[in-house]
Amino acid sequence: MQNFDYHTPTRLIFGKDVIKELPEVMNQFGKKILLTYGGGSIKKIGLYDKVKELLKDFDIYELSGIEPNPKYDPSVLDGVKMCKENDVDVILAVGGGSVLDCSKAIAAGAKYDGDPWDLISYQVKAKDALPIVDIITLAATGSEYDAGGVISRTETNDKIGYVDPLLFPAVSFLDPTYTFTVSKKQTAAGCADAMNHIMEQYFCEDSTLLNDGFMEAGLKSLMINAKKCLDNPEDYNARAEMMLTCTYGCNGIYSLGNSQSGWPLHGMEHALSAYYDITHGEGLAIITPRWMKHVLSEKTVDRFVKYGVNVFNIDPSLDKMDIANKAIEETYKFFESINIPMHLREVGIDESRIDEMAHHVAINEGLDEAWVPLQEKDISDIFRASL
Ligand code: NZQ
Ligand code: ZN
């Protein structure tokens, strides 16, 4: 087991109607709030009105229209400007991972005198950030419990995971009933994203019985509960279990003491959604089985056998390579069964920019140090196999 230093300072407040604690929580941080949200889903579900009513004694400034795959310009820049102009005390992010991620970049930018891109691109280390409180409305990213935000910059095709312990939300409200209205497409994509967060930690050199069991249970929970949520969007227990399983995704708790895998699937997918603005979870689901096939070898087969036997109940007495291949097939079939388009062409990506994207990934993502190292040619092969 590897050494680690682990601290998650985020307070999770979980369950039906927990939002009633919002005024008391916000009071701890000050009176001036930047309320951030996306394209309007929070208005449709009545959450916007509820938040405004609960916070009627606060000064609220609003940044709306944060895009899926949130953009540096205009969203981050506008938010930073509003915080500085109004001397905001705290950010309240209400929405999915994109709203949270954007709010994290704003929180750091608001306390920095220069161009916020200096921070996101790691040229300068942030010294401070505004506190963030969030109400997450979509189970997927785990942004509500981690220190990262992913920001896109259109003109350079960059999509950067900006991580800094200063960006942990101070408080996250998780009420599964707010996820009842999440569309089938986003429910499935959220499931695929969270499964990938686990797989990125599972497929590594050095793990433990404890972590493997935790992650295998997480994968099974996501697959079973996603189907329940798709069949009955208002199944509280299924939405609740999905929400919590997703929340653990990226904050390291699934793999304390494991060796690092380098998160190759995310490294590759971020290029797909940077170049083509596709849904992150769908991009991941498409490339996952192709990556698995690409990295399967005598050296890696045992990990796939464990995955196949423990997650998909494949007969352990079969030949090792057969188990591994069947596990990859089951992974593909599961994503297909929740109606994820399983070819890049179906989400509008063709051959034309594959080499350019592979080059971008090879230069920026450090995947030559992944669990199974990937060079530019490996990356373009995986993209081509996904077409
Ligand atoms: O914009 P609104 O109107 O709010 O609609 C959103 C959006 O269209 C909608 N939605 C959210 N909650 C809803 C709802 N619709 C109905 N009912 C609700 N309760 O869903 C759409 C997608 O929202 P988005 O926030 O983009 O989805 P998600 O939570 O999957 O976030 C995706 C972003 O997170 C990044 C991804 O790269 C992508 O940019 N990631 C962030 C991570 C992190 N911070 O740790 C890790 C992930 O690996 C991921 O990279
Ligand atoms: Zn992800």
TrEMBL record:
Residues 9-176 form the Alcohol dehydrogenase iron-type/glycerol dehydrogenase GldA domain. GO terms for molecular function: alcohol dehydrogenase (NADP+) activity; butanol dehydrogenase (NAD+) activity; metal ion binding; methylglyoxal reductase (NADPH) (acetol producing) activity. Keywords: Oxidoreductase. Residues 187-386 form the Fe-containing alcohol dehydrogenase-like C-terminal domain. The keyword Iron does not apply. One of its GO terms (cellular component) is cytosol. This is BdhA protein. It comes from Kandleria vitulina DSM 20405.
